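Our consortium's second objective concerns turning raw sequence data into structural hypotheses that experimental partners can test. To show how far this objective has progressed, the report includes one record in full. It was chosen at random from the queue rather than selected for favorable results. The single chain below, 323 residues long, was entered without modification.
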Amino acid sequence: MDPLSEFLAGPRARAAFTLRVMMDPPFAIDVQDGAALTVIVAVRGNAWVVSQGSTPQLLTPGQAAAVRGPAPYLVADTPDRSPTVVIGPRQSCRTPAGDHLEATMANGVRTWGNSTRGETILLIGTYQSEAAAGQLVTSALPALAVFTEQETDPALLRMLEGELTSPGLGQESALDRVLDLLLLHLVRVCVERSKLDIPSWAAGTRDPVVATALTLLHEEPAAPWTVAELARRAHVSRATLAARFQTAVGQPPMTYLTAWRLALAADRLASSAATTAVIAAEVGYSNAFTFSAAFTRAYGTNPTSYRRPRQAEPLRREDGSRY
């Protein structure tokens, strides 16, 4: 199972933050929520997306953007507009001076903004956590990617807008799944773009030798792989495989294997009651101690702590009710 398939099968966008934003100029939303990834879709009007280290990008109706966190970014009617709203951790909403705006900018269920009609309407889907295989998925995206109307699947955009504007049974789960499918589509577009030059597992799928090695690692993560064995199975020399894998993926094969094993383990920790020892064995570690040490180095917390609820709090009004 490759990272995209694992992403859809695992606990990815569970209770993702999804919102319709309706704004009239002038506006500049300074997003400092620290989220791992945000997908923005323009429904009406234009908006500029300004991300640190990237050229400002104009988003027009029918286009989508993906912004990788946790660095802050700006969504505004002009690229040089000073912030009018600051979105902080746990989706808090304030003026630059610190005054609360949650109540004044609430426009109904999952709708927010400074206007009830909205010269500019955006659909926002935010992945709060960078956990596990999802982190490998988003590694195929640049810090800021904008997708043309031709590259963005209109059916998925209609589904997302329909779920946001017509609440029904299972709305939250439906929004999560549509958001996952939209992200999968955008990652595929990035992989297919001829000018994609971001080393990642996704870029590696375009090299037949590297693709063979990746398939083996994805399908049998617990196997006792070595570079020599991967090279033998790919019918190339060890040096050839190592060089081509490094160029395409951006890291050596065994380093990637460690990241993949730990990503799978993180998913299992979040979605099952299996013991640490069982999970360690499932992903190729000989004992729980070695696994725990590797996991702590990669995720900054031990497996037991990682198991605790990791979802960020949903956006709430000042009276405590949820949007």
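The partners drew two points from this record. Residues 310-323 have pLDDT under 50 and may be disordered. The first helix runs from residue 3 to 9. Both points have been shared with the crystallography group to help prioritize constructs.
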